[in-house]
Amino acid sequence: MGIVADTDDASWSKMLDLNLNAAFHTLRAVLPYMHKAGSGRIVAIGSRVAVEPQPGVGAYEVSKAALVSLIRAVALENKDAGINANIVLPDTMDTAVNRAAMPKRLFKVGADRQCCRAASGARWACWRGSHRSSHSIYGRNA
After folding, report:
1. Which residues are tagged catalytic?
2. 55, 78, 81, 140 - which has most CB atoms within 10 Å?
3. Is residue 127 classed as helix, strand or coil in its secondary structure?
4. Are residues 53 and 61 in contact, defined by beta-carbon separation less than 8 angstroms?
C-alpha cells in the first residue's frame, strides 16, 4: 500500500482485482440463482476507509469505495426480487497480517474504534445475512 502517485500499475490492478472484481464476478455468478429462488442475502466486507479516507492506502480505499457502490447498485437493482445486499464497513481488523503490515499502529479495541476483532466483524456480517435482518439498507433507503 502507499500513496496513489507511488502506486504501480500491477499493485493498483491487484487491489482492484482482490476487492472489487472478485466481488463482481461472484455476484454475477450467484444472482441468477437468487432470482430463480426468489430470494437471497448478500453481505460484502468493505472497510471504513471507503467512507472515511486515510492517507497512504489509496488503491485499497478506492477499491473498497468502489465495492460500496457495487453493493449499492446490486441492492437497488434486485430489491424487488427479494434479494438483499449489504456491506459491512469495519475499522482496521486486528489480525496478524495487519499487525505485520502496520507495526507502528496501536491495535486497541474499544470505544475509540481504532480497530476491531475479526470475530466482531464476522458476527455483524452473519447478522446482516440472516433473516433477522429483514431488509436491505441500501435497497430500502436509497
Report:
1. 60
2. 78
3. helix
4. yes
Beta bridge partners of 15: none
pTM: 0.77
The amino acid that residue 137 corresponds to is I
pLDDT digits (tens, 9 = 90+) for 69-98: 999 999 999 999 999 898 888 776 666 766
Q: Which of 64, 114, 122, 116 is nearest to 93 (CA)?
A: 116
Instruction: Flag residues of the chain having pLDDT under 70.
Output: 92-95, 97-99, 101-142
Query: In 3-state terms, the chain is what percent helix, strand and coil (to 5)?
Result: 60, 10, 30
Q: Using CA atoms, how far apart are residues 62 and 87, in angstroms rounded to an integer?
A: 15
Domains and CATH numbers, the chain: 4-141 (3.40.50.720)
